[in-house]
Structures are given as structure tokens and as C-alpha cells.
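Chapter summary example.
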Amino acid sequence: MIEIKHSSYEDYIQHQKSKADYGTPLRQRLLTDLWESDCDGFRLNFKPYHDIISKCKNALCLGARTGQEVFVLNELGIDAIGIDLVATPPLVISGDVHNLEFENESYDFIFSNIFDHVLYPEKFISEIERVLKPNGHCLLHLSIEVIILYGG
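The structure predicted for these 152 residues follows.
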């Protein structure tokens, strides 16, 4: 695993924005070639939680990039919006996951798959706790690297 050091919070923000800013090849692929396969992936990820998600009225997707997860939640009848450092209207608005500009206890369901990319995990979690309604649900999709060593 490569650890990236940032000289400042602004440096971190600029690095994250550069990964899928307007005009980058990745952003274009996410909006075209990868759109449907990414949506299918989110449909599969959300399927085990259908009973929970179906009872939610609204959802917030953190680090939603181009909004495939938002699109899928909307398909499921949830009023969903995503935030990311770079907006992709109408599904994703611009915002910082470390400083959410939403009222306390405003969302039934929060989803994110960027926990391993946030600079301040404690702040990220505290913002989720702040905007999540009482008895709300949060789904954090984590990428975990498993290393198995065999001795001889």
C-alpha cells in the first residue's frame, strides 16, 4: 500500500479533485463506458440491504464522484443526492465530506465507499453521525487488503 503525504489540507483537496476533475479521461469513462457496469455494481451492493433501504425516504452519498450510486438509489425510490469535491449535476453537488453543509439529523440513509480516501476519518465519521437521523442507517463499503503469509 502506498501512503500519500499531503503538505496541507488544500494539497489533499487538490489531489482528490485531480483524480476525476472535468476533462480527465477517468471522468469521461465514468460518465460513458463505465456508467452501466458501475450502476450494476451498486445494484448488487445495495441488494442485501433492500429491506433497510426501502424504508428510507432520503439518502446522502459521500464521495459520489459521478453519481452512479445516487442514480441506483433514485431507481429504488429514494430521494438521493451525492456530494463530491467536483460536482456532477444533477446527481452530485460540490461539497467536502469533512464538513457537510447539511442540517443535523437530515438523512435516513448514508452511503460511502471512500472511507479509505478521507484525510481525517474521525471528522468524516462525526459528520455522518451529525447528519444521520435517529434510527437512520449508514453503509460504508470498504476495500480491505488481505495478506496471507505461509511459513515453510
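To summarize the output: Residues 107 and 132 are 5 Å apart (CA to CA).
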